[in-house]
Amino acid sequence: MLSPSEAESRAAALVERAKKAGADAADALYIADASTGVQVRLGALEDVERSEGEEIGLRLFVGLRSASVSSSDLSDEALAALVERAAAMAREAPEDPYSGLAPEDRLLRERGPDVDGDDGQDPSPTELKARALETEDAARSVAGVTNSGGASASAGRSVIALATSHGFVRGYSTSGYSGSASVIAGEGSGMQRDYAQHSVRHYADLDAPAEIGRRAGERTVARLNPAKLASGAMPVVFDPRVGASLVGHLIGAITGSAIARRTSFLLGREGEQLFDESIVIRDDPHRPRGLRSKPFDGEGLPTAPRNLVEGGRVTGWLLDSASARQLGLEPTGHASRGVGGSPGANATNVHIEPGRLSVEDLLADIGRGLYVTELIGQGVNPVTGDYSRGASGFIIENGRIGPAVAEITIAGNLIDMFRRLTAADDLAFRRAVNVPTLRVEGLTVAGA
Q: What is the CATH number of the domain that holds 37?
């Protein structure tokens, strides 16, 4: 795997080849990944996996025509053939008046912020195995756990570099570590399964194996002997590990491509108050050690923290250069891409600011409701906002979390759900999208 500076040189050289081949403009993206993962089950080593790979992608423009190609072979012969193939494809492609590189005057010219995304650690497979075994031991030691789905520990590193014919050349590296466990409680038809997982950029930030395992075991045992919940409209409270999905639906609806194609349920609602005015949703690509932190976007524009929702209102769309041109707007530094194809747009580290109520106060006035810890299926219509998903969790009775419940469905419409959303004060930064406990009024719940 190349160093960031070597990757920058490789991407810049490919862009220069494209220009010599007659390209009017071009950009190249290099991505390399190396990872080691260890899986154990029932106290025995089940799998050790080591993967390494690198790939480079070229986007080449001839007038308003473009083509994208990629290769995992970085030899001179392969890259020469890559440029030749891209040039031939571009000349035959249809014209697209919105395609092109990001505006030259908007490119990041400084080195950009240090997001502290690579700690330089390289734990050995032996160390990862010991972590995985300790994680599973802790999970299996929880009273009521009867079997194991296994535990894992992994470590990896990535290098990303982007070069454009406008003179932008930048690269950076990231590290990543994770631990997880999945166990089973109960017997026969009464068995239940749950898990715990943690991912970080710095090895020192990873939860202790015993903590991950204990959390997996306790979550699983708590799901035993699910009760019946009568159907009806009621408050639904989302645990932070599943509440983030609501923010995900919002992000999908405010991307430039969804707006330009008129496939977003938020189309025409610019400036409308969608949430309570106390709700703030923030995107922070510079959060130190954030799982999606980065100094520049997929087109070389500088990234910057921004409130996506402020005062309950969406502040604007997430735009790459193509969707910005199509909408007559400016790109926002949210371009996201892989080595193949053109950029799209996406957010980075997103969170809902904590509210004023404790979780206890958030639940206090609920006579009968549902606390959701798992969502199943993808029953969300991105055009209408209609929402219907399978769920599991716990019944809320008189302000307290009661017995487990499973195999139920919750339904509503995202517009109504956003308007009726209340956030607790328990925000913790543990994921790429982080939310406190969230309460949504008046969802339709179909019990088992």
A: 3.30.2290.10
CB atoms within 10 A of CB 296: 25
pTM greater than 0.85 (yes/no): yes
Q: 344 has which bridge partners?
A: 336
Please check whether residues 200 and 238 belong to one and the same domain: no
Residue reference for tokens 């470590």: 155
Cα separation, 338 vs 69, whole angstroms: 11
Distance of CA 435 to the CA centre of its chain: 13
Sequence-separated (6 or more) residues with CB below 8 Å from residue 178: 152, 153, 154, 197, 198, 199, 200, 206
- Round to whole Å and give the CA distance between 119 and 115: 11
In the DSSP assignment, the letter for residue 102 is: P
Per-run averaged pLDDT (10 residues), the chain, 448 residues: 95 97 96 98 97 96 96 95 95 94 94 94 97 98 97 98 97 98 94 97 98 98 95 97 97 96 93 94 98 97 97 96 96 95 95 98 97 93 97 97 96 97 98 98 91
Indicate the angle between helix axes 4-20 and 76-92, nearest 10 degrees: 50
* CA distance readout (Å), 392 to 99, 308, 325, 372, 395: 44, 30, 43, 6, 10
CA distance 327 to 270: 13
Which residue type occupies 427? L
What span, in angstroms and rounded, lies between the C-alpha atoms of 233 and 231?
Answer: 7
Calculate the CA 264 to chain-centre distance.
19
Domain count, the chain: 2
Domain hosting 164: range is 4-221
Q: Please, are residues 406 and 392 in contact by the beta-carbon 8 Å criterion?
A: yes
Query: Cβ(132)–Cβ(208) under 8 Å?
Result: no
Asked if residue 318 and residue 200 are part of one domain, the reply reads: no
Nearest to 206 by CA among 119, 264, 136, 275: 119
Helices within 256-319 (DSSP H only): 256-260
